[in-house]
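can u pls check wat happens w/ magnesium ion
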Amino acid sequence: MSEERFASAVVPGQKRNQNKPVRSHKVVFLGQSGTGKTSLIRQFVYRTFEPCYQATVGMDFVSKLVTLEAGHKIRLQLWDTAGQERFRALVPSYLRDSSVCVIVYDVTSRESFDSVYGWVEQVLEDRSRKEVILALVGNKVDLEADRRVQHSEGRAMAEELNMLFFEASSCKPDLVDAVFNGIAEGLSADPKAESDDEIVLEPQRHREASHRRKKCC
Ligand SMILES: Nc1nc2c(ncn2[C@@H]2O[C@H](COP(=O)(O)OP(=O)(O)OP(=O)(O)O)[C@@H](O)[C@H]2O)c(=O)[nH]1
Ligand SMILES: [Mg+2]
């Protein structure tokens, strides 16, 4: 496993609780294909953005240490799933032991926003609200001119479904960090969501190239 997989993101703040053991939390990314799940994770972990779309096949996995405001660290195990319909049957197996489910929609796609209900339903078939924190991310806010889903609509849906809410853009590091740090702080404030088991997986690097290109900032 490479260094980058355990790179540390330091949130400025106090340095208390340094001796607390590092807990691992499984964070599963779900949402329609092309909404930017992979791009959000890549920006957070590797500080890169690729405008060329390569659909995730099956699942990809990366781990990163995050230092919380209070000073202690937690490890986020980021599970990047494939949004394509043909992989939907695999979702329940990824949900097992998850602490957080992040559902991503694209603010320029009403269809991806409407699909959020289906993803939440699927999560709640396997995981109870006592077991997982649900987060909703409206991505691609850099494409403001093409926006089809307003911030207020995203917020209202998140309130209705009892989810954390963020708007982000995979090409804006500060917005991406706000998502992951918000999730990390949410986990730290929620002692029920803990998975101590070390999960060692071989990352799936098989991706399907697509010739579709999308504009970006
Ligand atoms: N303009 C813009 N483009 C983005 C953003 N996030 C992702 N994209 C682009 O949208 C396309 C799809 O992004 P991905 O991250 O591969 O989407 P995904 O949700 O992982 O897709 P699947 O793996 O098929 O489920 C790519 O061309 C990205 O470059 C964003 O915030 N802004
Ligand atoms: Mg992907």
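Strands lie at 8-10, 23-30, 52-56, 59-67, 73-81, 100-106, 133-139, 164-167, 207-213.
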